From TrEMBL, chain A:
CDD domains xrefs: TPP_E1_PDC_ADC_BCADC
Name of this protein: Thiamine pyrophosphate-dependent dehydrogenase E1 component subunit alpha
Pfam families found in the cross-reference section: E1_dh (PF00676)
Cofactor(s), names only, from the UniProt record: thiamine diphosphate
PANTHER family on file: PYRUVATE DEHYDROGENASE E1 COMPONENT SUBUNIT ALPHA, PYRUVATE DEHYDROGENASE E1 COMPONENT, ALPHA SUBUNIT BACTERIAL AND ORGANELLAR
Tree of life domain: Bacteria
TrEMBL record, chain B:
Claim: Transmembrane is one of the keywords in the record: no
Oxidoreductase in keyword set: yes
Name assigned to this protein: Alpha-ketoacid dehydrogenase subunit beta
Domain Transketolase-like pyrimidine-binding: from-to ranges: 8-183
Protein's organism: Aminobacter carboxidus
InterPro entries per UniProt: THDP-binding, Transketo_C/PFOR_II, Transketolase-like_Pyr-bd, Transketolase_C
UniProt superkingdom: Bacteria
Cofactor: thiamine diphosphate
Keywords assigned: Oxidoreductase, Thiamine pyrophosphate
Pfam families given in the database record: Transket_pyr, Transketolase_C
Amino acid sequence: MTVAQAKPKDLPVGANLPFIYREYSAERLKQALHKMYLIRQFEEGAEESYMRGLIHGTMHLSIGQEASAMGICMPLTNDDQITSTHRGHGHCIAKGAEVSRMFAEFFGKTTGYCGGLGGSMHIADVSTGNLGANGIVGGGIPIAVGAALTAKRLKSDRVVISFFGDGANNEGAFHEALNMASLWKLPVIFVCENNGYGMSTSMARSTAVPNVADRAAAYSMPGVIVDGNVLSDVAEASHEAVRRARAGEGPTLIESKTYRYRGHSKSDRNRYRTKEEIEDWMTNRDPIVRYENELMEFGIIDKAGVEAIREAVAKEIADGIEFAKASPSPEIRDLERYVYTETV
Amino acid sequence: MDQAVRELSYAQAIQEAMAIAMETDERVFLMGEDIGVYGGAFQVTGDLVERFGADRVIDTPISELGGAGVAVGAAVTGLRPIFEFQFSDFATLAMEQIVNQAAKMRYMLGGAVSVPVVMRFPAGSGTGAAAQHSQSLEAWLGHVPGLKVIQPATPYDAKGMLLAAVADPDPVMIFEHKLLYKTKGPVPEGYYTVPIGKAAIRREGRDLTIVATSIMVHKALEAAKTLEAEGIDVEVVDLRTIRPMDKETVIESVKKTSRLLCVYEGVKTLGVGAEVSAMIAESEAFDFLDAPIVRLGGAETPIPYNPDLEKATVPQVPDILAAARSLAMGGR
């Protein structure tokens, strides 16, 4: 459980500050900005590497959704677990993975988190509690419930987060999993990152309720809607859901309303939404700009501080790509190595 | 080891295996539909809920996909779930979790995790339950790398292979023929395992090899007795595991007898017998064959309701006798 640390200095006493400014130290708040930049620049670095032919296959970028991944993960410890989605790079970084090993995975190298066998769609880092992205929409949701069942049976303090998109809320797995989690009061939090579109199909065209969170009522759990581009709002909802879960009060469904700037995947021609819509989100609601301005307004960081973070992140990204390039590829003779567990 | 041997039914043997697994390993628990106070649709879990409590014998909602996913998630994070499908046909509702998740998770994550889940599937025809409760879908799952797929034919194997499955670090799918549940056989008390991936020679013979699975092993043995009186000496190989298949035992047997008959209940086309036949055709045993390989499998139809039609859908003893006689007489 995250412990409230020293409050940022020089803030007006009694000011009605957003949640995270009351909960976290200035240092943690700056780290959060660092990670959000890390996610954004990682995605840009992956996109560029793809364009240059260093990464093959496809990928689903989460640019624009950084506050959602970061905010949800703020109250988590390394022992807590997540399951993630095809758009899972941000979750992986927010949970604590190293970008060098993520790049190495995307480059198909042995030093990657999955030894080059999983790629973007199966990125995972079990050591920091990420049980994996998933190529199947909704596939990770029941798995998260199973992980929460383990946590409860072992009487651990662990909570499990299941990230998924708005598209997954129409999969049967979503409904079956939420029902069981609520029935058994498991320490799991369902986080729907609603970016408006399941590939090209909008919420309005796919979903019979206006909000995914409305569906929580059917499973007798709280359904919370947050602005997924406001870090503090996301983190506050996550804190409350984590508190509930650890206290044995059962699951929560959080709907984090956000937006992806890029297309669904590399094949997307953006024919289902307008340039104006994309522009509006990018210029008026960018999660990093909003958070950065807030930090400067509250005097937690200055322009030079922001610049230092951006430079440090840029170096981390460049180093990560170099590490990936220099790493060895798997041997074809090892093709079958991880199909089954080797027993000695 | 001195373990008293009793006569138990196939269902009792499975129940005993699950009880031993739960007694010896805190991580083991059962999940499934109506496996608690009801005791399971085929009374395999019986009164285990009274011995181990509802926390370890968990009744799930009717949610095969979600339930299978919960079992996978629990397995990946340190527990040892045994998930019962009420009928193997309902695997169709959970194929996503079985095929995309359980089978591939270890591979996709580069060996970072194992998925020690056991799934049990009451399978097969003969109960008058018609097309959606009588299928033999083991070949579907046998087609998926990452899964292990077994079909124990005797109470002894049912117990020993289930205990081997629970101890196995990878996902093991157990197909249990429903007509076997009440059959009896010798079963030792206590813990023992029967290895996954090893076939058993149930009867030695010189003239003809019958490779059979599950209930067909018993039909093959019955046929072999009749054939013995006719001077045809049949070897019966119980395949026991369809993935990974014990090629060596089958190849050695065919090299000895020079004739192969495959008998299995699943639909003939693209089924277990197709794989066994192809495996022999590709092996050194091919040169020993004195006649074309023959397959007896399920008909190319859904399982019908009418009892006579239902019987006609899957190989019966007279079918095996006819095929074996013809095969034994044919040759070059």
